[in-house]
Design a protein that fits this description.
about 280 residues, single chain, globular
Length: about 280
């Protein structure tokens, strides 16, 4: 078993493969055929992506092993990287280290939830010093985390859940966000991220959160909208989705209060610089 601050690259268990079969159509036969077909499609396209099995599975699992859909997702990623080249070109963990180590705005839980999904919390309130960390820097950090999450077969299959914590949000935070930033984040989540985003939970939203939501709402598509939940300070509502035993005391759970954060997780990112460099090579020929 990997340690608490490690990427879990272990092969899927029989139980996990059964989930993949039921939810993603994954069987040895379907997988082999889809990989072969996606390789052919990729070779005939104007896209430049690695075609080893591990890499192709990153795109085939979220698209339920339909090669044409996987290729479309790859194209979306290439378009997104092209559109936001100034922010994302050759982006390495060292470029976003301060967001993780000095500010601790993003934290990945060391455990999964009741459905085996990765849990992540993003602090958009009192922990966010808008004079030192920009909206762009937070996005670059989230994009870097995605590159690591897709390495985990369990996360590819079960997906991820994000908690946005707005505790202590003030007008300064609202002013630090933009329509462009909202569009970029939602385009990424909905079109250019090869992860199964299973739910987004908003907690501790103050009244002025309505101003923030007005930036995001126009870009939210129906599928994601059904997976977004607003809880305010009522953690019991969050527990309807994630039981107490899978949450830390910070969110009304029975697990210990979080005593770790981005500082502990950051060294993991640097262990995978080779893969991230490989990921950065993806795009158009």
């Amino acid at each position: 078993m990997p340690g608490p601050f490690e990427i879990d690259r272990s092969s899927p268990s029989a139980e996990l493969l059964e989930v993949a079969k039921q939810e993603l159509r994954e069987t040895p036969e379907v997988r082999a055929t889809a990989i072969e077909e996606l390789r052919k499609l990729l070779k005939a396209s104007d896209l430049n992506f690695p075609d080893d099995e591990e890499f192709l599975l990153i795109y085939l699992r979220p698209t339920k092993f339909y090669p044409e859909s996987a290729l479309k997702l790859m194209r979306n990623v290439a378009e997104f990287n092209k559109t936001y080249k100034d922010l994302l070109h050759n982006l390495m963990p060292a470029d976003v280290k301060p967001v993780f180590v000095d500010h601790g705005l993003i934290n990945i839980f060391t455990h999964r939830d009741q459905k085996g999904r990765r849990l992540m919390v993003v602090h958009m309130g009192e922990k966010w010093n808008t004079k030192e960390v920009t909206e762009d820097q937070i996005f670059r950090a989230l994009y870097t985390i995605q590159k690591l999450a897709v390495l985990e077969p369990a996360t590819q299959i079960n997906g991820a859940v994000v908690i946005y914590d707005f505790k202590g949000m003030g007008m300064g935070h609202v002013k630090a966000m933009s329509t462009g930033g909202a569009k970029r984040l939602l385009t990424f989540i909905q079109e250019a991220c090869p992860l199964r985003m299973k739910a987004v939970h908003f907690v501790n939203e103050p009244m002025i959160f309505n101003m923030v939501w007005s930036l995001f709402k126009p870009f939210v598509k129906e599928k994601l909208n059904k997976r977004m939940f607003f809880h305010g300070e009522k953690m019991a509502k969050l527990h309807e989705h994630i039981p107490k035993e899978y949450l830390p005391a910070n969110y009304g759970g029975t697990l210990p209060t979080l005593d770790y954060g981005g500082k502990e997780w950051y060294p993991v990112a640097e262990q995978y610089n080779d893969f991230i460099t490989k990921w950065n090579s993806c795009g158009f020929k």
